[in-house]
Amino acid sequence: MSQTALDNDLKSAIRTIPDYPKPGIMFRDITTLLGDARAFRRAVDELVQPWAGSKIDKVAGIEARGFILGGAVAHQVSAGFVPIRKKGKLPHKRVSVTYALEYGTDEIEIHADALVKGEKVVLVDDLIATGGTAEAAIKLLRQLGAQVLAACFVIDLPELGGAEKLRKLDVPVRTLVSFEGH
Ligand code: AMP
Predict the structure, then answer these.
(1) 116 within domain boundaries
(2) Catalytic residue at 102?
(3) What is the number of H-type helices and E-type strands within the chain?
(4) What is the pTM of this model?
(5) Catalytic residue status for 164
């Protein structure tokens, strides 16, 4: 399937909710894509398609929508799954990183023993906007000695520059559909 056909197919399965969670934001809701068996399967297959022949040790998913997609991807490529969670949710010894939001800061965590040094990891989330969350996740993975093979997202908001930011960190980025604006 061509990139344009793929884009149209998946794009029509994503619902846009204007002014959620606050005025001016176009919320890209993937629950409609997840509920559509064909679109869900296609998104999971396509996310890691460039790395299909490579050995992937772990898939890391970012809370919460990255868990759904990342879990399915991990199963598909026969890799383990590693959750990256908001502060305070993981029960065992953790490594944390704080990152800047538009207003204030946020913190994400990973279990310190989630990975062994040198393991090949693919990062998965539903959407990349500014790339702040994914950049923080890459820091955590690298802190544990992971080799970050790629970062994969269903949706790119290219005007916000997140994919470019990750490429500057030497992480190949895979996105399936793009939307203009925020
Ligand atoms: P960022 O750190 O700016 O790249 O933001 C990415 C995170 O925020 C992802 O986990 C997304 O799920 C969420 N996010 C940001 N903008 C949107 C949007 N317009 N629609 C849905 N989710 C969004």
Answers:
(1) yes
(2) yes
(3) 6, 9
(4) 0.96
(5) no
What residues does 98 pair with on adjacent strands? Answer: 107
**Residue 88 is part of which domain span?**
40-178
Following DSSP, what letter does each residue of 79-108 receive, concatenated? -EEEEEEETT---S-EEEEEEE-SSSEEEE
Any ligand 1 atom below 6 A from CB of 11: no
Structure confidence by residue, pLDDT tens digits, 74-131: 999 999 999 999 999 999 999 999 999 878 999 999 999 999 999 999 999 999 999 9
Q: Are 18 and 28 in contact (CB under 8 A)?
A: no
Amino acid letter, 99: Y
Residue 19 resides in a domain: no
The best mutation among 127, 130, 139 to test binding of ligand 1, ranked by most ligand atoms within 8 Å of the C-beta, falls on: 127
